[in-house]
Design a protein that fits this description.
Elements lengths: L1 H37 L8 E7 L3 H13 L9 E6 L10 H13 L4 E2 L1 E6 L6 H14 L7 E6 L12 H9 L4 E4 L5 H14 L5 E2 H26 L18 E7 L5 H9 L18 E3 L2 E2 L2 E7 L10 H8 L1 H5 L6 E7 L5 H14 L7 E6 L9 H6 L2 H9 L4 E3 L8 H16 L7 H110 L6
Parallel strand pairs: 1-2, 1-4, 4-5, 5-6, 8-11, 8-12, 12-13, 13-14
Antiparallel strand pairs: 3-7, 9-11, 10-11
Helix pairs in contact: 1-15, 3-7, 7-15
């Protein structure tokens, strides 16, 4: 019994040591598992995908590091995937680069982004922050709103005043009041709890790559649609045009002045009218901002002169100018007899050529029947005949030929009305050649119809091109996603192999410990038995000696 008790005692002591070693090994294994999980390779728990947005790149890096360093499995039991979205507003990126950055950021968050954290360095929002936010909404569409939370970074000992800032109220309301004011690292668990509450409120939905792709498709379609609408607006609809009063006789003439900024259109109109009806200066910019009409009598004839804004004005976009120029058709109702295309002697630059092309595209090919080229600053020709001047420039030759070889020269600095009479005579001759006709609203409508047909053709081509690009993008992004999946699978397999190897090492150590423990226990028991056997033998020897002494007559 004594021997058995000693054996049990030794076994218990050995088992306690063994359990202690086992617990230590289990702790090491748990640490390894947490390390592997933090690397995002073993998907044993749900993953939280966060995208950090905002203009300040350093601030995004700092917040990403802060969240990583202050998050563990105890305070937040899920893996956290942090992606930093580059700033999108006014960064010099092309539209294609911006689209690539946004799609790639979302594709890194499989299956989608749970929350976009829009980071600002403190309230109130700056104009650049607002512009960045608007750019994000433009690219990702309004569907992103329910997935955005404003993260306001405040310095220590600074009172939060976000509620008192009117400039931020609209943006916060847009995101249903979702915001978090972060002052120190101890608030990271609270931030993650707010994020989790937001996810639960959204029923665990997320902003997926498919939603991002849809938003980019819609953005591209809207862009093409806007281009088409802009083309439509460039030609003014003239339905319901009113006619001149009956006192406008058949011998009247309706003149429209067209041309680039600074070529002397207004001065030409004043020369024809014999008075300063239109404002004219030598400034580089256009003085005329809208079409203006004057109807005086010249040589007992009623002359309608319409001055138009100049193209390629440095202060106004050409599209805006074209919208105004087309009003001249209705102002010259029932239609102008002549378009005077005003060009300055001495220069026929690319801008002049582009202005001529723009005018011809606006009023159509038929307008050439009613167009005459008028050269201003005729004094600069000196003794050179206008015919010789035209021969010296191939582009001018082509232009004059397109206009039926009709041209005239004005010197706006002199008061000689002979040049005006000659201009009117050439105009009358042109009208007779045209059978007394003028440029009509129907012609203008035909131009509009042609533009519409061209728009539809362009739209069809762009749609086909867009479909091709869409297919290419789908194939490209699919390939990238497959590559990403393969890479993730490779990393996951590597981590699993590491874990398996660690578990095998643990098993081997466990077996070694058990084997060592059993051997030590056997030796200990053997030693105890030997000691007890020795004690037993010594005790028997003593007993034999005592017995022999007590037997009478026995010699010692």
């Amino acid at each position: 019994m004594y021997v058995k008790a000693q054996e049990n005692r030794a076994r218990y002591e050995t088992e306690d040591k063994y359990e202690e070693k086992v617990k230590r090994m289990e702790y090491e294994i748990d640490g390894l598992k947490q390390k592997l999980q933090s690397e995002g390779s073993i998907k044993t728990t749900r993953k939280l995908n966060l995208v950090l947005c905002g203009r300040d790149a350093l601030l995004k890096i700092s917040i990403s590091r802060l969240i990583k360093e202050n998050t563990n499995m105890k305070c937040y039991p899920h893996l956290i995937n942090l992606v930093e979205l580059p700033a999108l507003f006014n960064t010099g990126f092309s539209e294609e680069q911006v689209m690539h950055h946004t799609f790639w950021s979302v594709s890194l968050c499989d299956p989608g982004v749970h929350v976009f954290l829009f980071i600002i360095p403190d309230a109130p929002l700056t104009d650049k922050d607002k512009a960045e936010m608007e750019e994000i909404q433009r690219i990702f569409s309004s569907r992103i709103n329910k997935h955005i939370m404003m993260l306001i970074i405040q310095e220590k000992n600074m009172m939060s005043h976000i509620n008192a800032v009117p400039s931020s109220a609209t943006e916060i309301q847009m995101f249903e009041g979702r915001r978090f004011v972060l002052q120190n690292s101890s608030q990271v668990p609270d931030l993650l709890q707010d994020v989790e509450n937001m996810i639960q409120k959204n029923r665990k939905s997320f902003y997926s790559t498919f939603m991002c792709f849809q938003a980019q498709i819609e953005l591209e379609k809207n862009k093409h649609k806007a281009e088409i609408e802009e083309l439509k607006r460039s030609v003014m609809k003239t339905a319901g045009v009113t006619h001149l009063n009956d006192d406008n006789g058949d011998d009247g003439v309706r003149i429209v002045l067209l041309g680039k900024t600074g070529v002397g259109k207004s001065a030409t109109g004043n020369t024809i009218l014999r008075r300063d009806a239109f404002t004219s200066t030598t400034a580089a910019g256009s003085v005329t901002r809208e079409c203006k009409k004057e109807i005086p009598e010249v040589n007992r004839r009623q002359i309608t002169v319409i001055d138009t804004p100049g193209l390629f004005d440095t202060e106004v976009e050409n599209d805006e100018i074209r919208k105004e120029i087309v009003k001249c058709v209705s102002m010259a109702a029932p239609g102008p007899h002549v378009f005077l295309l005003v060009i300055q002697v001495g220069r026929f630059t690319k801008e002049e050529k582009d202005a001529v092309k723009m005018i011809q595209e606006t009023f159509g090919d038929k307008s050439r029947m009613y167009t005459m080229v008028l050269f201003t600053r005729g004094d600069e020709l000196k003794r050179t005949r206008v015919e010789d001047y035209i021969k010296g420039n191939r582009s001018l030759q082509n232009l004059i030929h397109q206009c039926g070889n009709r041209c005239h020269v004005f010197n706006n600095e002199i008061k000689d009305q002979t040049q005006v009479s000659e201009l009117l005579d050439k105009t009358d001759c042109m009208v007779k050649v045209n059978g007394g006709s003028f440029y009509t609203n129907e012609m203008f409508q035909q131009v509009e119809n042609n533009i519409k047909a061209e728009q539809e053709r362009i739209m069809k081509e762009k749609e086909e091109e867009f479909k091709r690009k869409e297919q290419q993008l789908r194939a490209k992004y699919k390939a990238e996603r497959e590559q990403l999946k393969r890479e993730n699978e490779r990393q996951r397999q590597e981590m699993q192999n590491k874990l398996k190897k660690s578990e095998e090492e643990f098993k081997k150590k466990e077996d070694d410990i058990k084997k060592e423990t059993d051997e030590n226990l056997r030796k200990e028991l053997q030693r105890k038995l030997e000691e007890q056997q020795k004690e037993f033998e010594e005790e028997n020897k003593k007993k034999r000696t005592t017995t022999e002494l007590k037997i009478p007559g026995r010699k010692t």
